[in-house]
Write a structure and sequence with these properties.
13 helices, binds zinc ion, eight-stranded mixed β-sheet, 450 residues, 18 strands, globular, Alkaline Phosphatase, subunit A, 33% helix, alpha/beta, transmembrane, hydrolase, EC 3.6.1.29, 18% strand, binds 2-acetamido-2-deoxy-beta-D-glucopyranose, bis(5'-adenosyl)-triphosphatase activity, Gyrase A, domain 2, four-stranded antiparallel β-sheet
C-alpha cells in the first residue's frame, strides 16, 4: 500500500520539478489557421512539434472573430469590449478618431489594456521582443517591447525568425518573452476560400516548412531544449459565395447611416433616428441579424465599450454584407465565435508543457493567464481561467472526471485486496495442505447430465 502511495507521490513531485521560473516563452501566430487544417493537410513539422508537446484541437476565440481584436485578446486575456480593440476598423465618436489596419499606431486605441510584453518588462523578469505582432510597434502603456520591428508585410518570415531568435539568444539583456506573427494562411484563405484544398494545400505546406525553419533555427542556437513555444492563431475561415450577398442598399438609403466596419459584422452609426435605422435593417435579410447595442447577446461579451457602434449587423456563416459591391473574396472570418469554422488551434512544447497530450478546447482568453504563469508574472485583471489550461502544464496536477473515477476505483481495489490478504493470512491457523484446493475443486465438480 505505502509503496503504491509513494509511487503516486513521486509522480506528482516529478511533475512539479519542472516548475515556472527562469523560462523563456515564444508565442507564434499564423494568421487564419483554422483548427481543422491540421486534420486535412499533411504538416510533418507541425506534427513533430505537437508529438513532443500538447495540442488543443479547438480554441474558442473572441467575438468579433477578426485579426486585431483576437491578437489583442491573446496577449491581454480580455474580451474585446474590455481591451478596446473591438474591430479592424473603428471609430471613436468622442475623440473623433478612426482606426484601421493601415493607421493603427495611435496609442489611444491600445491603452485600455496592458499587454503581456509590457507587464513582462515592468515586473522586471526580462526584456520582451516582437516580430510584427499587432500592436507591438505602438507605445502601449508608455512602452514598446525593448526589441521590435515596425510592421511591414513585405518582410520575409525568415527575416522575422532570424531577428526573434537572435534576440532570444542574447544574454544581455535576457529576453524572456517574444512574439512572432505571419500573415498566412489568412491571406490565401481569403483569396481562394478554405474549401479550395488544392491551393490551400500549397499554402499550408509552405506554412509547415516555415515552422520547420523556426524549429531548425531554435535548435541551431541551442535554445530548443529550454524554450517554451506556443503556436496558435487568431481565427479560422469560412467560404463565401456570390450567391450569399446581403445588399444593404436594397433596405436603407446610404445617407441614413455611416458604415464604420463592413462585413461579416457591420458596425452601423445611425445618422437619422436610431430606431428608424434599426427598423429598416432588422428585416433586411433573413441571413443577417441586426442588434441594437443594448441587445447584443451576453455570450459575445461585446457591448460595454463606446467603440462598439449603436447598431451591429451579424451575417450568418458564409454570408457577406455589402452596400452594393460585388464579392471581392472567397473566404472570410469575423462571424459568430461559436462556429467551429472560426476556431483556430493551439500547440505548445517545452519544459513548461506536458508531452504527447491532446486537449479538446480552451478559450483564447485562457492563454494569457497560462503565459503569465509560465513567466512567473502577476497577471493584470483578465477574463481567462488558469484552471482551463492546467492539463497542458507540466507543473499542474491535472485530473479529469474519468481519471478521478479510475483512481478511486483503483484505490478501492488495492485497499480491498490488501484487506483480504490480511484477513486470510490471519485466519490461516493451520498451514494449508498441498493439493487441498485441487481436491476440493474436483469434489465440487458434479457431472452434468442431460
Ligand atoms: C490616423 O489616425 C489618427 C487618429 O488616430 C489621425 O489623426 C490621422 O490623421 C490618421 N492618419 C491617416 C493617414 O489617416
Ligand atoms: C500603465 O498601466 C498601469 C496598470 O494598468 C497603470 O496604473 C498606469 O497608469 C499605466 N501607465 C501609463 C503610462 O499608461
Ligand atoms: C518593407 O520591407 C521591404 C522588404 O524588406 C523593404 O524593401 C521596404 O523598404 C520596407 N518598407 C518600409 C516602409 O520600411
Ligand atoms: C546563441 O548563443 C550561444 C551562446 O551564447 C552561441 O554559442 C550561439 O552561437 C548563438 N546562436 C546564434 C544563432 O546566434
Ligand atoms: C433613409 O432610408 C429610407 C429607406 O431607404 C429612405 O426612404 C430615406 O430617404 C432615407 N433617408 C435619408 C436621409 O437618406
Ligand atoms: C453602387 O452604388 C453607387 C452609389 O449609389 C453607384 O454609383 C454604383 O453604380 C452602384 N454600383 C453597382 C454595381 O450597382
Ligand atoms: C473581464 O475582465 C475585466 C477586467 O477585470 C472586467 O472589467 C470585466 O467585467 C470582465 N468581463 C466579464 C464578462 O466578466
Ligand atoms: Zn483575415
Amino acid at each position: 500500500m505505502s509503496s503504491v502511495l509513494m509511487l503516486l507521490f513521486a509522480g506528482i513531485l516529478a511533475r512539479c520539478a519542472c516548475s515556472a521560473g527562469d523560462s523563456r516563452l515564444l508565442l507564434v501566430s499564423f494568421d487564419g489557421f483554422r483548427a481543422d487544417y491540421l486534420e486535412t493537410y499533411k504538416l510533418p513539422h507541425l506534427q513533430e512539434f505537437i508529438e513532443d508537446g500538447v495540442l488543443v484541437k479547438q480554441v474558442m476565440n473572441s467575438f468579433i472573430t477578426k485579426t486585431f481584436p483576437n491578437h489583442y485578446t491573446i496577449v491581454t486575456g480580455l474580451y474585446e469590449e474590455s481591451h478596446g480593440i473591438v474591430a479592424n476598423d473603428m471609430y471613436d465618436a468622442d475623440a473623433q478618431k478612426t482606426f484601421s489596419q493601415f493607421n493603427d499606431s495611435d496609442p489611444f486605441w491600445w491603452d485600455e489594456a496592458v499587454p503581456i510584453w509590457a507587464t513582462n518588462q515592468q515586473q522586471g523578469k526580462g526584456a520582451s521582443a516582437a516580430a510584427m505582432w499587432p500592436g507591438t510597434d505602438v507605445k502601449i502603456n508608455d512602452t514598446t517591447p525593448q526589441f521590435f520591428m515596425k510592421y511591414n508585410f513585405s518582410v520575409k518570415f525568415e527575416e522575422r525568425v532570424e531577428k526573434v531568435v537572435a534576440w532570444l539568444n542574447s544574454s544581455n539583456p535576457v529576453v524572456t518573452f517574444a512574439v512572432l506573427y505571419w500573415e498566412e494562411p489568412d491571406a490565401s484563405g481569403h483569396k481562394y476560400g478554405p474549401d479550395d484544398t488544392q491551393n490551400m494545400r500549397t499554402v499550408l505546406e509552405e506554412v509547415d516548412k516555415r515552422i520547420g525553419f523556426l524549429m531548425s533555427k531554435l535548435k541551431a542556437s541551442g535554445l530548443w531544449d529550454t524554450i517554451n513555444i506556443i503556436i496558435t492563431s487568431d481565427h479560422g475561415m469560412a467560404s463565401c459565395s456570390e450567391k450569399k450577398l446581403i445588399i444593404l442598399d436594397e433596405c436603407i438609403g446610404r445617407n441614413n447611416y455611416t458604415l464604420i466596419d463592413k462585413t461579416p459584422v457591420a458596425a452601423v452609426l445611425p445618422r437619422q433616428n436610431k430606431e428608424d435605422v434599426y427598423n429598416l435593417l432588422k428585416n433586411c435579410n433573413s441571413h443577417m441579424k441586426a442588434y441594437l447595442k443594448e441587445e447584443i447577446p451576453d455570450r459575445f461579451h461585446y457591448s460595454h465599450n463606446k467603440r462598439i457602434q449603436p447598431i451591429i449587423l451579424v451575417a450568418d456563416e458564409g454570408w457577406t454584407i455589402v452596400q452594393n459591391e460585388s464579392l471581392s473574396k472567397l473566404g472570410d472570418h469575423g462571424y459568430d465565435n461559436a462556429l467551429p469554422s472560426m476556431h483556430p488551434f493551439l500547440a505548445a512544447r517545452g519544459p513548461a508543457f506536458r508531452r504527447g497530450y491532446t486537449h479538446s478546447s480552451i478559450n483564447n482568453v485562457d492563454i494569457y493567464p497560462m503565459m503569465c504563469h509560465i513567466l512567473g508574472l502577476t497577471p493584470q485583471p483578465h477574463n481567462g481561467t488558469l484552471g482551463n489550461t492546467k492539463c497542458l502544464l507540466a507543473d499542474q496536477w491535472c485530473i479529469n472526471l474519468p481519471e478521478a473515477i479510475g483512481i478511486v476505483i483503483g484505490a478501492f481495489v488495492i485497499l480491498s485486496t490488501f484487506t483480504c490478504i490480511i484477513v486470510i493470512s490471519k485466519n490461516r491457523v493451520v498451514p494449508p495442505r498441498p493439493f487441498a484446493r485441487l481436491q476440493l475443486q474436483s469434489d465440487d465438480d458434479e457431472p452434468l447430465i442431460g
